[in-house]
Amino acid sequence: MPEKSARAVLPENDGAEAPAPVAGKATESAAVRLQRMSARRQAALDDQKRSFLRMVSHELRTPLNAIIGFSEILSSELYGPLGQPQYQEYAKLVHESGHRLLRLVNQILEIARLEGHVVDLTLAPEAVAPALDQAAEAVQAELAARGARLEVVGLDADLEVRADPRGLRTILGNLLQNAIAHSPAGAPVIVRAERDGDMVELSIEDAGQGVDPYDIPRLLRPFEQGESTLSRAAEGAGLGLPIVQLLCDAMGGTLRIVSAKGEGLRAVVRLPGV
User: Fold this and answer.
1) pLDDT in tens, 16-61
2) Are 265 and 182 spatial neighbours (Cβ–Cβ below 8 Å)?
3) Domains of the chain: which residue ranges?
4) Model pTM greater than 0.90?
């Protein structure tokens, strides 16, 4: 009886290509791992930035606070007369210079935190009136020295914004300081506050010389001022407005500067209302 040959029966190939291996899960898993590694690396960098800024803040502020404190003791002759009257005058100059330097250090550190995205902001409903009262109280000495006065127009006691408490006071304080520094003696610094739809608009206006509209973008860059370094009359490093803009951006708001030569300057902040 003839032997039957065994043959493998293969399925007919209709010309269709064989399916490619599925690598979706592996690819997705690798992408997720990369994202997690990148997030951990960024978090570690942010922690390093925070640690560095804390160290710099402590190392700079500690000796400055000692200079300010001891010069105040000397200028007030707390423990008895200094002798020559010039010594008291020198102590007052040291005290004032220490305050200016401390303000500059605080502003530089604030810029570094905001630009490095390592500042922690807590956004919550915040009443505008108490924040403005505190900011105004902090600049009373500057108002008196300049002979300027503060006028508040249309501020509702119940007006609230969604903002970080410290950030809101920093915004108001910097804008008030900027307006006072450029106000003529006896001129008003006008503060307005009103709701505009879902936003709250805060404006602070001075009666100073103003700036050319062409120079306004330069005012929002750190260490810039409206006048040349040789002719500017106001003190300061030009950090107030950039800090305000960075804080507004971080809190979902905007800063707009309106000015013209000889017509003063108006800073308009818009923040989410409550």
Assistant:
1) 555 555 555 555 688 787 877 877 776 776 677 667 767 777 788 8
2) yes
3) 26-115, 124-272
4) no
CATH of segment(s) 124-272:
3.30.565.10
Contact at 8 Å (CB) between 173 and 265? no
